[in-house]
Amino acid sequence: MQMVRALRRAVSAAASYFERHPAAGAFALTLFLQLAVESLCRRSVSGGVRFFWDAPLQFAYGMGIVLLTVSLTGLVRRRRFAVLLVSLVWLGLGIVDCVLGSFRVTPLTAVDFQLIFSVLSILSIYLNPFEVVLAVLAVLAALGLLVLAFLRSPKRQVDYVRAGMGCAAAALFVWGSTALFAATGLLPKQLENLPDAYDQYGFVYCFTTGLFDRGIREPEDYSPQDVDLVVEELSPPPAAAEPQRPNIVVVQLESFFDVNYLQGVTYSENPVPVFTRLKGACSSGFLTVPSLGGGTANSEFEVISGMSLDYFGTGEYPYETVLQSNVCESYGYILRNAGYRTHAIHNHMGTFYDRDQVYANLGFDTFTPVEYMEHVPRNALGWAEDAVLTEEILLALDESDAPDFVYTVSVQAHGKYPTEVIDSGQTITARGMDEAVLPKAGFEYYLNQLHASDAFLDELIRALSARSEPTVLVAFGDHLPNFDIPQEALSAGGLLQTEYVIWSNCGLERKDGDLEAYQLLSEVLDRLGYHEGVLNRLHQERQGNAAYQKDLEMLEYDILYGQQYAYDGHLPFEPTALQMGVLPITVQWADNLHDEIYVTGKHFTEASRITINGHVQNGTVRINPTTLMLPGEVLENLDVVSVSQVTRDGEVLSSSNQFTYVE
Questions:
Q1: pLDDT of res. 131
Q2: pLDDT, mean of residues 569-587
Q3: Which residues pair with 285 in a beta bridge?
Q4: Residue 98: what pLDDT?
Q5: CB atoms < 10 A from the CB of 622, how many?
Q6: Residues with Cβ < 8 Å from 92, sequence gap 6 or more?
């Protein structure tokens, strides 16, 4: 209680000084907030001071942004409340970034707030119950403080001319310094490596950039003529022999990389023997991905779409922005138009990154998330194990007589990695690592999850080899794991590089080479004889051309934000009627028995819920894949019964056919 009183007195005294000396108060508050935020983001006061000392111009620029928000409080009659609100917002952002730094390498961006509902569903993996309660109490305390400040903050007369001039001066400083620093290179036009950018240019600048920097900016020379010139320079698809039509299975492995590249670290056994063997026998190389320690959906976007994220906004996730309502050229559409059935599989929640919506805009016919899988084993952290994916991939391949394109995203090796041993069954140990970078408990847990993902690859290849259908398997890591691995610790590759392998049972010739993630499937399709798609042909023909990146940027803008000149003004793609699950869930019969409701049908899973007249019944008990039971309830005449697949956060992914109960 004494602490609360002391805090109130300090806030009141600061607010009084602020009102008596507005200019000095604004400057002092701005300096404090800027230093506090940068210290929080670097997780040390010395880090914030060092940023001020090493990059004074960038520090001053960040102060200008903070000062602009502080100056706006001069236009508010309850100024004390406004000052407290602005201060809590900035300090809150710094605290959130500080906490996030213990979970992942990528710092807080504005786009993260669009992912908040997805993050809530996995919060228990990152925070223990005490930490969750502490976070809730902190938020409630901040809200309470704001309410108290609003009620007790005296109203005052506002000198709108003077306050407006202060806001204008701060805005002019930010505008002028932005133009000057951008022109001189003190501030980058694009933030490529976010952790390095936040460290070099400051949290305030980088986060604020993400608020406004979305999508792809229109290229200076964008016009129908320039786009036509790019397209006309691409060779028409050759009139060659019929392309090969093998199944194409892509496996994107969570946090997967060859840990044998870590210098000085030795293992009780090779954590990735299968991947090591495949690199020696199959096409392989380094794959440059757009993220580090997280951002699975962005690596996925580049591979599926053939688009580079270099031209998008700071920290942007296209799944959460432009693809919410737009279709774009993708390898799903290219192969679908070539007669393939297209499937997406992910052993995690269907709503994560809005995949249940976005995959329809990327050309997929079906999507099987974990809610449509049976007998899903989970690791010690609660992530679904990758072994479950083999059966789901085979199910997709068996779904029709047409060739299949199956894009699979795994999750087993996902963090947050534990700080103590939580799995007594671990077999792989490591020696020689710097425990400040690779904590023993967390790193060895990761190694054993990595080993399990590697074993899944072996099981999948054995299963594909036993089939009579020709198949190409592409496997790659989506990004490096969430450890603070320095570049100098790697004997090969970079922090934004994983590796890929291409296995086949149809005689695909070996060809090694390093690729960008957005070039991976164009390489595979080129070798199979598929040359449709504007971006696909650009990657296949122009990689060595000096104008390659410029042309890629123009085509990406044209397809997603422009006038689709590359397609004569209209994209030839429509959203698919995305089916959730390869096998449709159906209801065949529903009836009452001993004050219980029984529903029979097909393909029920642990996520299946009896739905009566549109109301999901969370008390549903799954007896087996064909029977569900709802205790303590009875159906009434003409009740309409269906079965819904529901995520653990309560969102309905799909519902079955309807059955009308008649007494």
A1: 63
A2: 95
A3: 500
A4: 84
A5: 17
A6: 142
Given a contact cutoff of 8 angstroms between Cβ atoms, the answer to whether 307 and 556 are in contact is yes
Q: How far apart are the first and last CA of the chain?
A: 64
Bridge-based pairing of strands 283-288 and 497-504 is antiparallel
Structure tokens at 449: 């999850």
| Angle between helical axes of 440-465 and 273-281 (0-180°, round to 10) | 50
Dihedral pair phi/psi, residue 205, rounded to 5°:
-65, -50
Tokens of 530: 């598929």
> Treating both helix axes as pointing N-terminal to C-terminal, what angle do 45-54 and 56-71 enclose, rounded to 10 degrees?
110
Among 156-160, 388-392, 444-448, 504-508, name the one with the lowest average pLDDT: 156-160
Q: What is the DSSP string of 232-260?
A: HTSPPPP--SPPP--EEEEEEETT---GG
Secondary structure class of 629 (helix, strand, coil): strand
With beta carbons less than 8 A apart as the criterion, state whether 365 and 579 touch.
yes
DSSP 371: G
Amino acid at 519: Q
Q: Which phi and psi (to 5°) does residue 78 adopt?
A: -90, 75
Q: What does the pLDDT average to over 103-123?
A: 66
The two three-digit tokens of residue 367, written as one number: 């999507």
Q: Taking the mean position of all CA atoms in its chain, how far away is CA 235?
A: 35
Residue 314, by phi and psi: left (phi above 0), alpha (psi -120 to 50) or beta? beta
- 81 closest CA partner among 166, 184, 153, 161: 153
Q: Characterise 285 by phi-psi region: left (phi > 0), alpha (psi -120 to 50), beta (else).
A: left
Hey, how many other C-beta atoms are within 10 angstroms of the C-beta on 512? 12
pLDDT at 128: 64
CA distance 443 to 227: 49
